[in-house]
Amino acid sequence: MATATYAGTNYALKVTQKVGTWPVAAHCNSARVYCMSDECYADGIGTVGSHFYFNKIPAGSVPLISVIWPIDSDDVSVGGDAMAAAVTGQLGILAVTGANALAADPDLFGDVAALTTATPQVIEPCPDGIIYTTTLDFALTTEKTPVMLTAAQSTADTEGVALKMLYTMGGRTF
Length: 174
What we know:
With 174 residues, the protein is mainly beta. The protein has one domain: Jelly Rolls, CATH 2.60.120. Helix content is 6%, strand content 32%. It has helices spanning 9-15, 22-25; strands at 34-41, 51-53, 61-72, 88-93, 105-112, 121-123, 147-151, 159-169. Strands 1-8-3-6 form a four-stranded antiparallel β-sheet, with no helix packed on it. Strands 2-7-4-5 form a four-stranded antiparallel β-sheet, with no helix packed on it. The longest helix has 7 residues, at 9-15. Mean pLDDT is 74; it is low at 15-30.
């Protein structure tokens, strides 16, 4: 068998710099990385299926990773605070109606494992074809509000979630 050479997506982009490929090229060539940071607390008991809404990220952004961890407004400790129950969830976007209608993609930014420890979780976008087939191809078409949809367990009063989402600006939207 002969040896083979394989070029990664970003490698190929650097070689053939075509107009309109900037969203992918944003991952390389020392692009600026921005951080959206927010925290959200439950105000009462939140049952499974509750939503935590976070600050918006702009149109043209290319999400890279998110860091998420549990917090509690009654016990603000350094580095977060574990939730009483094994709350899991998905970080994504809800459906948009009207002129810019869009289907919901509840796990676009990733799946959240049980928040039973204060250890931050690093999650990657997981486009599954609902809206985006791969985050390396296109920037977000419109401004998005990341939402965590809870699963598995209910949240207790004063418990919450902190989120830092790192993204770069792709420049071209579709």
